[in-house]
Structure formats: structure tokens, C-alpha cells
Amino acid sequence: MSGPRITVVGSLNMDLVFRTPRMPLAGETISGHAFRQIPGGKGANQAVAAARLGGAVTMLGRVGDDAFGRQLRDCLLADGIDASQVLAQAGMASGVAGILVDDAGSNSIVVTPGANMALTLEDVEALAPTILASDLLVCQLETRLCAVMRAIEIAKRGGVKVVFNPAPMQPLRADWLALVDYLIVNETEASQLSEIAVVDRATARQAATKLLAMGAGSVLLTMGGQGVFVAGQGDNSRMLAAVPVEVVDTTAAGDTFVGAFSVGIGQGLGIVEAATAAQYAAALTVTKLGAQTSIPTRAEVEQFIASRAARAPVEAA
Ligand code: RIB
């Protein structure tokens, strides 16, 4: 493996995806278009994105001792990811996500975490040498908070850059943000963390400014069709416009952004350049159904950027 060394601590889920004309109402039964079983989980998706974009990726996580667990691990291996620390947890089921995707490309997701919650603080401590040999650590919150925070503490103490995507949000101690070099949040997560309702560029700026003041090194606030607000220490914030595409399914767009951004930073790009490249990768993801089935390769992203070269997505703040 070559490219920036990236360790991902996080979740693996088998996604059970139902294509449906619209979201059913409470108590209603409707007919769907199609069903597919697709590998996912925020941690695994971010690992796959980083690997397909050129990172040398190691993943730490837990799956169940079941068929889904074997498939999830095999999918990481197929992308060249070191999955030797994705262990099967005896007596537990793998994480599963039930996902409804409607004709507008919107989704609703229910996750039963299963073995993801078996990842312990001790598991993370055993991986400390791998974390410390990395260029970046990437974490989310679909595993136990204490394990994620331990990984972040190890990385920070060893001078390894931390990319943190606190999704799904859990209550966090504010002082932990000081351990995070790159905080990647959507509007909901930014609103919860900053206690400022993020609805537009102005409120994104306010929230990002507060998150920086709370200690985050840089803030990347992803806003779907509105684009990404990028803010670093000092007065260098920018709104990057979204890359327009035909939306099929937004699942894993955020994860692709996280993985692609991490590779860009690991390759020495600045935050605006890394976020711009990550936006193109995330845009491609929404043009296809599913999580890991939709994450593009580096060649696909480069071809896409070349095809859109005339439409630069960077705008002044
Ligand atoms: O971010 C998308 C992911 O969230 C899905 O793959 C699903 O597994 C849930 O974890």
C-alpha cells in the first residue's frame, strides 16, 4: 500500500436497502421498487472511500460471528484495506442498517449496532502502535464513545492528525474538541454541538466560529445541496458551492467526503483544496444507490473533475 497512512476506528454494518416511491406513513404498508443488501457502516464507508481515493488504510472494528460479518470484512479486503483488526465477536450479530431510499433520493435509516458496540477501550489501546504510525486517525460515533475518545487521545498525544465526524451525534464533553484537528459535521451535528441552529451560510459561519473557539482546529460543515462551509483558525473561512448532480441516493455521501478529505490532507493539500476534491467525490456518490457500491475510485473522481473543470465550485464567503 502507498499513499497517506490512515487508521479508521469505527463501525461496519450490512445495509438492507429498500427502494421505495415515498416514505411510508406511521402504520402504513406500501410496495417498494426493489431490495438490495449492500455493505455499509460509517466507519467502513469512510475506510473504503479513503482506500479508493489512494490512502493506505487500516481499520479497527468489530463484526458478528456471522455471514454478514464475513462479507463486511471481505469487502474491506477487496479494497486493499488492512482488516486484520476487524475481529468477529462471538455470540453477537453484525451491525445492520435498515435503509429506505425514496424516489427523490432521500433516505431514512435505522441502525442496530450489534457487534460494533463490542469494540472496547482495550481493543483501541492494543492498536496504539498502528495509530501512532499513521498520518491521520479517522473516527465517527457508531461505536462506543469511550473507545473512540481513547483513540483520539492516543493520536493527539502522538502528534497524529485527528479527523472526527461525530455522527450520529452523542453528548460530548466540549473540551474534547481541542483534540480534533478536522471536525466534519452536517447541519444537525453542528447545531447540536454549537447550540446555534444552522440553516444557511450566516448561521453556518456563526456555528463554525463557535466550534473553532471551543478548540477544533478546523471545521468542515457539510450542508448537502448548499455546499460546504470550511473554517480554519484565523480568518480564512469559505463557502464551497455544491457540485450539481442528479441525486439517486445520498447514503454515504458524508462518509465519502470524510474519507476523501482525509486523503487530501494526508497528501499535503490545504483544507479548501482537500474539501473541494472531497466534494467531487461525494457528489459522485449520490449518483448511485447504496453505500460502498457508490463510493468512487480516484480515477473516477479525476475524470469527473476534468469533465466539470469549467465549473469551479469555490465561491468567496
Ligand atoms: O452514513 C451511511 C451509513 O450510515 C450507512 O451505510 C449505514 O450503515 C449507517 O451506518
Question: Could you characterize the architecture of this molecule?
Answer:
The chain has 10 helices and 14 strands. It has a single domain, classed as Ribokinase (UDP-N-acetylmuramoyl-L-alanine:D-glutamate ligase). It has a 10-stranded mixed sheet with strand order 5-4-1-8-9-10-11-12-13-14, with helices on both faces. It has a 4-stranded mixed sheet with strand order 3-2-6-7. A hairpin with a 5-residue loop joins strand 6 and strand 7. Helix 6 packs across helix 7. It has 317 residues and is of the alpha/beta class.
Give me the count of strands. Answer: 14
C-alpha-based Rg, rounded: 18 Å
N-to-C terminal Cα separation, in Å? 38 Å
Taking strands numbered 1, 2, ... along the chain, how are they ordered across the largest sheet? 5-4-1-8-9-10-11-12-13-14
Largest sheet: 10 strands, mixed
The tally of helices reads: 10
Structural class: alpha/beta
pLDDT below 50 for ≥5 consecutive residues: which ranges? none
In CATH terms, the superfamily is: Ribokinase
Query: Can you give the mean pLDDT?
Result: 95
Under CATH, the topology is which?
UDP-N-acetylmuramoyl-L-alanine:D-glutamate ligase
Write down the overall geometry.
globular
- Determine the fraction of residues in helical runs and give it as a percent range: 25-40%
Please give the domain count.
1
Strand content: 15-25%
* Small molecules (ligands, ions, cofactors) in the structure: alpha-D-ribofuranose
Order of secondary-structure elements: EEEHEHEEEHHEHEEHHEEEHHHE
**Based on the structure given, which CATH architecture is correct?**
3-Layer(aba) Sandwich
CATH class: Alpha Beta
Function: Catalyzes the phosphorylation of ribose at O-5 in a reaction requiring ATP and magnesium. The resulting D-ribose-5-phosphate can then be used either for sythesis of nucleotides, histidine, and tryptophan, or as a component of the pentose phosphate pathway.
Family: Belongs to the carbohydrate kinase pfkB family. Belongs to the carbohydrate kinase PfkB family. Ribokinase subfamily.
GO molecular function, one term: ribokinase activity
Pathway: Carbohydrate metabolism; D-ribose degradation; D-ribose 5-phosphate from beta-D-ribopyranose: step 2/2
